[in-house]
Amino acid sequence: MRITKVYTKTGDKGKTRLAGGQQVWKDNLRVEAYGTVDELNASLGVVRALWLAETKGATQTQGERELRWMQNKLFDIGGLLATAPGQSFPNMPSVKPVDVTRLEDLIDGWQKDLQPLIEFILPGGGTIASSLHLARTICRRAERCCVSLMRKEPVDQLIITYLNRLSDALFVLARWVASRSDEKELLWERTRSV
Fold first, then answer.
1. Taking Cα atoms as reference points, which of 177, 150, 193, 186 lies closest to residue 55?
2. Burial of 34: CB neighbours in 10 Å, binned 0-12, 13-18, 19+
3. What's the number of CA atoms in the CB half-sphere (13 Å) around residue 31?
4. SS3 state at 126
5. How far, in Å, CA of 169 to CA of 111, rounded?
6. Which residue of 58, 160, 168, 186 has the smallest Cβ count within 10 Å?
7. CA angle (161, 167, 172) in 5-degree steps
8. Which domains does the chain have, with CATH numbers?
9. How far apart (Å, rounded) are the C-alpha atoms in residues 47 and 67?
10. What is the pTM of this model?
11. pLDDT for 145-189, tens place per residue?
12. How far apart are CA 47 and CA 103, in angstroms?
């Protein structure tokens, strides 16, 4: 793909084109879904930048490499969501069960270093962990957008499964990063009625 001009003026009246040329309103559920996936991708870019800044450009860590893989997979998902139902193109990206399994393996690997949860935790744990918690909430919204879209139009079930597992992975990674940074987890202190 080659982008020679950033502005095209085609969206000035509130419409955009899906892959394949179908014109839709910019508040279309499909556009909302892939736009939220794009927002999630950008938030992971912030996390990666913070991660690299904290390690002062040292050799890339496994966590940073996995975040980059997640970002690439989110571009795949965005491309799939931006394609009108029934359309297909050469070299179309895909989401496969192995992608979900990779997330589950990451979760299991990070989880083994953590204490079991006894209560909900407050999002926090330092700059990177906090940014991961924010990305997790955007991921949950992306998942909800895709579910809304799925109720109206065909959406590959693996996209929703991947986003669901990704939000879990971001939660566990946030806890793992906080733990590695010796940040104390703050538990939710329930306000009790008297």
1. 177
2. buried
3. 13
4. coil
5. 9
6. 58
7. 125
8. 38-83+93-112+120-180 (1.20.1200.10)
9. 8
10. 0.89
11. 999 999 999 999 999 999 999 999 999 999 999 988 888 878 788
12. 17
